[in-house]
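Duplicate of earlier report; Serine aminopeptidase S33 domain-containing protein input re-posted below.
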Amino acid sequence: MHRPHAYSFDSWKTPRLPPQSTRLMIIIFIIIILENYKNNSHTSHLLLFIYLFIICFLGWVGLGVVCFRGTRGKRREEMGFPVRFPGVSNELLKILDANMDEAPARRRAREAFKDIQLGIDHILFKSPADGMKIKESYEVNSRGLEIFTKCWLPETSSLRAVVCYCHGYGDTCTFFFEGIARKLASSGYGVFAMDYPGFGLSEGLHCYIPSFDRLVDDVIEHYTKVKEDPAISSLPSFLFGQSMGGAVALKVHLKQPNAWNGAILVAPMCKIADDMVPPLLVKKFLIGVANILPTKKLVPQKDLAEAAFRDLKKRELTSYNVIAYKDKPRLKTALEMLKTTQEIEQRLEEVSVPLLILHGESDIVTDPSVSKALYEKARSSDKKLKLYKDAFHSLLEGEPDDVIIQVFNDIISWLDEHTKETNAC
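Output:
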């Protein structure tokens, strides 16, 4: 039976075309006509007719393009009533209802809600923070963007190694990863994380990726500074990427092939299924529109909380991730992710870093067969693939407690194995 993919082109719909979309389609069509006649006075009427047909058809069905792992809970507007959090005042709900496109609104929401987040009934938030040092800061990078960073360091044990985290699409390092980082730090690992520009608490238009390569360069810049700290510069360093963060981690490694001692990839996004890629003409059209309207939220998405979280109670807790991106993906972001996965697919043989790849066998958000392909094609001599029977996409957040514990044990055992020689010296 065919399984849907989150990073796919299978979400065609037939809604009534609203007046705003009609105006948008007309504007795009006019621009295309002007551009074609400006660049080529002999543009055929047939080509213009094809453009018009595509515009009207895609406008009618809703631009069925890449459907990303989205909201982890339906948008309030789509559901018709606000998400209710027990004990949360109306004043706080107003903060959460604000437009989150810019960082100040996201920061206000997180600050007002962080204590409530840490109090939810989830195994990740039952890990004690005692015996570790936790630091949050904002740092201005070389592009002048204010980036949110966080680290968790053990205080009662010696530091074994450095783990640098790459988060997933629309996500942040301030919610579920808080519990993941505490677990790693309690096992002796220094954990460092950042929100990409435009994600979480970092400056920038929410969930807008104008260039995936530039995002990767921002990640490299920050973690290079982290590893230059004399207190940790001699320690092994590992990348840790989840979902889209797996693609970020792989790109970091490909740009810095000798800079890392290993990479942990949890349900990595590194390929879109061939049968889900749009026809060439449609793809060229979308690229053209992205050059004109790159930030527009034109890409439909499914609510994949059901697909990503197997445990029903944990699935309900996804709404507490109040600064996660909850809208339709922006067109340029979608195309950048498509381009990135296509590049990674072509470069799997170049991956040489020691690898731990973890994937749920029942994941329909990112296909576990892609992780198998990465494992088989990577030229790393030191690589390990762990598949978890019946598990969904969110291995560390959405599975029953026993599975989450098993995944943690596998990660920590692998890290211990790859740091024991260093720590024995």
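The beta strands are 132-140, 146-154, 161-166, 189-194, 237-242, 262-266, 355-360, 383-388.

Merging into the original ticket.
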